[in-house]
Amino acid sequence: GENVEQHPSTLSVQEGDSAVIKCTYSDSASNYFPWYKQELGKRPQLIIDIRSNVGEKKDQRIAVTLNKTAKHFSLHITETQPEDSAVYFCAASSGPINTGNQFYFGTGTSLTVIP
Amino acid sequence: NAGVMQNPRHLVRRRGQEARLRCSPMKGHSHVYWYRQLPEEGLKFMVYLQKENIIDESGMPKERFSAEFPKEGPSILRIQQVVRGDSAAYFCASSPWTDTQYFGPGTRLTVL
Question: Which residues of A touch B33 (CB under 8 A)?
Fold first, then answer.
């Protein structure tokens, strides 16, 4: 089955700096890669996702890049703010587009933005 | 459009009792997933259901755990004869016909 590895496990940045979180996956059939943000005691919330037919996607201060050949994808947060502090999870999913499939999650990155 | 609902939010059981966790998907969503999260760990897939069907239960322990998603009503995750190791946060997620999943607030199960 799929194996998703996520690095780093913890990350501290100064407010205003950029943060980068990287994930690798093992199954070349994986074609959907969402990123979730989870604040303490709260539900995981989808912040951005990317499909395998796209190399990069951006939404304001958040961007995700995908390298299918190397089987890795990354989350980039620019101009970080204290409210960006949370645990971020990457995930990978395979199967036909527009159908349900289980997600394989990374182990999470605890991001702290220092004011 | 209400989000994914889960209840109870907190559940305390003694060893050997049964735990029933409920999940109501977002309106219009026919796919339900259950995940378990241990403290300071990631989310582990347990089971994927559609109405009246279990599609993938590869992540669910073979014994004591069962799940259903009836034609009417919420999806239920049932844990029989709970043990301390079952203490965790259990999240359900739902999706429409696409593969994007939206999570509920979770049920935090504590086994004494």
Answer: 100, 102-103
Residue B97 near chain A (CB below 8 Å) = yes
pLDDT of residue A88: 97
Strand stretches in chain B, DSSP E: 5-7, 10-13, 19-24, 31-37, 43-50, 53-56, 65-68, 75-79, 88-95, 102-103, 107-111
**Which residues of chain B, if any, have pLDDT below 50?**
none
Q: How far is CA A112 from the centre of its chain?
A: 16
Q: DSSP labels for A51-63? A: ETT-SEEEETTEE
Kindly determine whether residue A43 and residue B31, on different chains, have CB atoms separated by under 8 Å: no
Best to test chain A binding among B7, B23, B99 (most A CBs inside 10 Å): B99
Measured between alpha carbons, how far is B74 from B79 in angstroms, rounded to an integer?
A: 16
Q: Is the pLDDT of residue A95 over 90?
A: no
Distance CA A48, CA A57 (A): 8
Contacts with B98 from chain A: Cβ below 8 Å: 98
Nearest residue to A110 (alpha-carbon basis) of B110, B46, B91, B39: B39
Residue B11's closest CA among B112, B108, B106? Answer: B108
Please list the residues that pair with A58 across neighbouring strands: A63
